[in-house]
Amino acid sequence: MSLLIRGGTVVNADRRLRADVYCENGKIIAVGENLDAPAGAETVDAGGQYVMPGGIDPHTHMQLPFMGTVASEDFYTGTAAGFAGGTTMIIDFVIPNPQQSLMEAYRDWRGWAEKSAGDYSFHVAVTWWDESVSKDMKTLVEEEGVNSFKHFMAYKDAIMATDETIYHSFKRALELGAIVTAHAENGEMVYQLQKELLAKGITGPEGHPLSRPPKVEGEAAHRVIKFAEVIGVPVYLVHVSTADALGHIERARAEGSRVFGEVLAGHLMIDDSVYKNPDWEFAAAHVMSPPFRPKHHQDALWRGLQSGSLQTTATDHCCFCYDQKSMGKDDFTQIPNGTGGVEDRLAVLWTNGVGTGRLTPEEFVAATSANAAKIFNIYPRKGTIVEGADADIVVWDPAASKTISVKTHHQKVDFNIFEGMKVTGLASHTISQGKLVYAKGDLRAEKGAGRYIKRPAFHPMFEALKKRAESTA
Ligand code: URP
Ligand code: ZN
Ligand code: ZN
Question: Does 241 sit in the ligand 1 pocket, CB within 6 Å?
Fold first, then answer.
């Protein structure tokens, strides 16, 4: 299977060059001018277009069992929808129930993901603690290629990790050379605020952001950063949505800490007015955590991305249809939390980032694939177009435009949070493992073609951390 992408401008995070890209057997074999294609090779004409690494979405939840239901998008439909928008890899989450063995949960998720069309990997959540969890973390790192462990500081009485769990898990992750990640919201505060709001008769979606004000995120962001600093482990904050949390990340980084931040396309673009919409279904469709925020937070998040304080962009793709959202018709705390976007992230980011001059195309590549690949230690296999890398590529037409709509999207959900947004800059072709999986509207995703991608532990930053600890001891 060979493919030549001809006549485009290759854009990596560090530079751009006029080059053809030749792929064979799933790998990039050559990047250079005027390459010849062997007989039988398929050819993509990329004239006037950018040729970039396929998007890596480091935060998705396909088929997640959550809040009494299961996310509507499965690993096949979700990765296929990603292809239609230029995303070629996801990092999803194994989330064990409290007291469930990590290995058992991991095997469940591996089974569900077998139908994936695109490559995938897993962060594993640590939701409780005992010696078996410690042992399973070692197995996951050493045998299964897991190098990141997630901690939910919210969702009390469900998957929330206590400070005790966080402490032990962070120590263990450091020993094993794995990075820790966190959903930063103070779950106790959320729980108490939810009770107070319901007691006052506030039962609709407007209660959701009131129960999760920005400082609730700020407190948890600060706490988890301090945990990581005390223990000396690198930490990655998922879905940073407030100026408050961003400020804690900026201060920690300025002080030399290894702290990383992810921002969602949704949080960059959508504000909290959605919860005041009188249409219950519309407001409930936007219920996700952390919630969409007042507008000034969006400006801060864009600045965070531009300055490099936030390194990655994601979607937290976790779809629930209207009939599922209606589980919370009389009580906003029962509305399944989650929204979609795996198909739209690149176009939304390009339009509102590159299209406005906030980001260069190279910075776009950093924020949509290269930085995630670096932080989660799969670079340069993923996240760059160089000889020897996986042939996961998007051919990007900067002049193509469309209006995002649930009527035309490929995502398996009956709502789109970006509905009506005009985007300019679209994937014309997507290549996964050297094969054309999307070509000008023709989606050719193949069920089960995606591979589980192992991510090695002991990222070089662990050596740096060790040296730093020794030199300051
Ligand atoms: O509302 C959300 N984000 N649902 C998915 C679980 C999580 O918190 O990431
Ligand atoms: Zn979360
Ligand atoms: Zn999530």
Answer: no
